[in-house]
Amino acid sequence: MPQLKIAAVLAVAIILQLSLRAVWSPLSYIDFPLIVVVYIALQRHAWQALIVATIAGLAVDASSGGLVGAGGFSKTLTAYLIFLAATRVNLENTLLKIPVLAAATLLDSAIYVFWQRSLGYPPSVPFVQTMSYRLIGTTIVGTAAIYLLDLLFTEHARQRRSFASRRKGARRVR
């Protein structure tokens, strides 16, 4: 059942990535599939993170008309490095997920541009400007999205919400 949820969320992320750039061009800087990849890698599901990263990268590469495989490789390598960090350091705190998402955005952008340049594709836009816009957009939207994904996927969060009324303390009447 969790695999169906992951597939549905990934499909929505890919559709948002491909369709929102037609609505308003600054929305193209938000990397929705990377947010899903980072969330799954932070949950310490190595194979799921690698498979989702590869599928997300290849799907976006194939539809964008760029170098097919560069996005898949960059997202897969990013997922692997985040998984390694999550197994070594406790990243369960929500505040720690924000810098991890920002670092993942920078790493994904750097690897993608490295492959573009090493294979002879000239950059179509300035690298630093694009990377800074992606960093800002993906980190801001990704913070909210990771919180929502945590509510959707985590059984512990579902239990906390269901017992929230029981945890309220009795009010003292003076």
Describe this structure as you would to a colleague.
There is one protein chain. The chain has a single domain (2-156), classed as Arp2/3 complex 21 kDa subunit ARPC3. The chain has 174 residues and is mostly helical. It is globular. 78% of the residues lie in helices and 0% in strands. The protein is built from eight helices and no strands.
Pattern of helices and strands: HHHHHHHH
| Intertermini distance | 50 Å
Shape type: globular
Largest sheet: none
β-sheet strand percentage: under 5%
Instruction: Compute the number of helices.
Output: 8
Q: What's the pLDDT, averaged over the residues?
A: 86
Enter the CATH topology name: Arp2/3 complex 21 kDa subunit ARPC3
Poorly predicted tracts of residues: none
Return the CATH architecture: Orthogonal Bundle
Rg (CA only): 18 Å
Helicity range of the residues? over 70%
Number of domains: 1
- How many individual β-strands? 0
